[in-house]
Every structure is written in structure tokens, then in C-alpha cells.
Amino acid sequence: MFRNITPVVQNLLLINIIVFLVANFVFPVLNEWFALYFIQSAYFKPFQFLTYMFMHADFWHLFSNMFGLLIFGPLLEQFLGPKKLFILWMVCGIGAGVLYSGYSMYEYKKLEDKVLTFEADPDPEYFNKLVLENRGYFSPEVFDFVGDFSRNPEDPMFIERAEKTLQAILRLRSNQPMVGASGALFGILVAFAMLFPNTQLFLLFPPMPVKAKYLVGVYALYTIYNVFVNNPTDNVAHFAHLSGLVVGAVLVYNWKKDRNSFY
Questions:
Q1: What CA–CA distance (Å, rounded) separates 252 from 175?
Q2: Angle between helical axes of 182-195 and 59-80 (0-180°, round to 10)
Q3: pTM score, two decimals?
Q4: Buried b vs exposed e over 46-70: b needs ≥16 C-beta within 10 Å?
Q5: Percent of the chain at pLDDT above 90?
Q6: Which of 17, 34, 180, 203 has its CA 20 to 30 A from that of 57?
């Protein structure tokens, strides 16, 4: 595996590993500077569309992305050439960040409208619904408050606390960063499936061979499912994964159409 590693894959692996070590053991502030924040956040900077893809939440996050690059990247680099593989990685990573930011703005606006609806008519049942939809942001104490508020729906003190709780959620949502090369990796996966659809890959769990097109197809369906289910306790940016798949598919499709450039 390591003997066949190609130059661009090797450099991407080294950069990601070095950045992870520096950000976690030398300059932790890099995690705050280089993560991708909500566009309306005070922490947002345009360069984060590039830098976020070199940051990772923990070792396993880094390992899973780099392992995928190591498995699928070398053959793609041999086939596409170093320049096109690098373009694929960067365009899918940046594109995933841009599309995810647009999606985040849409989701934030929906939540903001719901908070305004509650403030116009402070209904405990509606508050409970918002708590359940965003339960990943709450401490367990808020569920005790939900019961108290339901028993005292007209109490101004409970209404004020409920409004402050929802405003706090808006602040948390607007300042929640995204990190990781998963969008870029998903672009690599879809490119592999499009260029080598019938290549047999051997899974570890379950131990069985599967063609690349089926493996990536299942990944894509699973990602789409998670985007629509939108589990509030899930901190994985599934829409960024889906965005990387879409950007990668469009890029490779256009390369395949332009035969003179592709081969």
C-alpha cells in the first residue's frame, strides 16, 4: 500500500497530519481560526472555505479521511494525473464548504422564524417541539423546565426564560464550526466510482467483495437519508458529504466529456 503512494496523495497526507499535530499540541488557537464558521458569525473569515478542510476534530476523524484518501487516491492520481487529482480534492473540499454554508444559512433562517413565531405566541407545546428538534444543544435541565413551563404557561418569568433559551440556541447554531476533509474525500469516492465502477473492493465489515459503484451508491443514499432525517444529536455534517459527492460527480462528468483534456 505505502510503496504505491503517489506524490499528491503523499503531500496531502503529510499536510493534514502536520496541521493536526500543530493545531492540537502546539497552537490550539488554529482550531478556532481555521474552522469554517457560519457566514454571519463574528468568527467567520473567507479563507476558512480553504482552511477548514485541513482541520479535524480528533484522531479518528483524521484517520478515517486520510485512510480513504490513501485507499482511493493513488489509483486516481495515476489515471488522472497529479494536477487533476489535486484540483479534484481542492474543488470538492471548497465546494462542499460553500454549499454547506448555504445550507446552514437556510437551516438557521428556518429556526430563526420558529423562534420569532414562539415569541409572538409563547406556547409551551411549541417550545417543547423546538426543544425536541434541537435537543443536541440542550443540557438535561431544560427538559425539567419544559414541564414547569407547561404547568405555568402564562407566567412571565417562564416565558422570558424560554425566549432566552431559544436565543441561546440561535447563538450556538451561528457559532458552530465545521472541520474536516470529508467533502473532499467524498469527491474522491464518487470519482473512483465513476471511473472504475466495476472495481471490486473488499469490505472488512461484513467481509465481502463489492463493486465500487455499489459501495459509493450506498454511501450516497445513506448520506441523503441523514440529510433529510436531520438527527439533532448527530454532529456529522452530512450535507457537506453530499455536496462533495455532487461537486466531484459534476467535475468528473465534465472531464469525461472533454476527451482531449481528459486522456
A1: 34
A2: 40
A3: 0.87
A4: eebbebbbbbbbeeebbeebbebbb
A5: 52
A6: 203
